[in-house]
Amino acid sequence: MTGKVNEALSYEQARDELIEVVRRLEAGGTSLEESLALWERGEELAKVCRRWLEGARARLDAALAEEEAGEEEGRG
């Protein structure tokens, strides 16, 4: 359960696994060691999701900036 998260995970894969980790933690019934391993995995998955979302935000910002630059040129 512990170890480095596969960087090739898609956002959806990481999100779905993170949902499962949270579900298992909320359900309880795991040992302290298992709970810690799940928590660590969840943290790693959250980082993957955050990187995907930050990348998406950067792409949107770049596209909006490009669109604004095009509109500025059209007015000039």
TrEMBL record:
Record InterPro entries: Exonuc_VII_S (IPR003761), Exonuc_VII_ssu_sf (IPR037004)
Gene3D superfamilies per the UniProt record, alphabetical: Exonuclease VII, small subunit (1.10.287.1040)
Keywords: Cytoplasm, Exonuclease, Hydrolase, Nuclease
Domain of life: Bacteria
Enzyme Commission number, as recorded: 3.1.11.6
One matching Pfam family: Exonuc_VII_S
Broad EC category: hydrolase
Key word Cell inner membrane present: no
SUPFAM superfamilies assigned to the protein according to its UniProt record, in alphabetical order: XseB-like
GO cellular component: cytosol; exodeoxyribonuclease VII complex
Gene Ontology molecular function, alphabetical: exodeoxyribonuclease VII activity
Transmembrane segments: none
Subcellular location: Cytoplasm
Protein's GO biological process: DNA catabolic process
Catalytic activity: Exonucleolytic cleavage in either 5'- to 3'- or 3'- to 5'-direction to yield nucleoside 5'-phosphates
Binding partners and assembly: Heterooligomer composed of large and small subunits.
Family per similarity comment: Belongs to the XseB family.
Function: Bidirectionally degrades single-stranded DNA into large acid-insoluble oligonucleotides, which are then degraded further into small acid-soluble oligonucleotides.
Descriptive protein name: Exodeoxyribonuclease 7 small subunit
Organism field: Streptomyces griseochromogenes
